[in-house]
Amino acid sequence: MAQPWSILGGNVVSAAIGVTCAKCLGEPLMAAALAGTASVAVMFVLRCLHPPGGALALMAVLGGPAIKAAGYGFVLWPVAPASLILLVMGVLFNNLTGRRYPHLTDQAHLDQSLQNDGPCTLAAGRVQE
Predict the structure, then answer these.
(1) Taking Cα atoms as reference points, which of 88, 90, 6, 91 lies closest to residue 54?
(2) pTM of the model
């Protein structure tokens, strides 16, 4: 969930959804509920699920007058650059410590697990190495 697309896409999309909900709905509790739900749903559809993105959607709604005054500018500053900095720091740290980042998925391994064990075993998280 902390892959490049998840970090950038999840944070930016969720912040935009949060700003939209705050602008379109007057009631903060309703806007917060819709922003959190919609951000998770959209991240899921876009395959960029990043749990802190849901928090950004809530922050856009409940963050106070400075964030409300920024409007969609909140997405452009500080969310987008902070997400990019986070990503760059993750790449640098992992390269300096000898770890591979971003992590590449082993699609062939997943496909084989689905054929051998079925989707229920894979969904339960019991994929054998």
Answers:
(1) 6
(2) 0.79
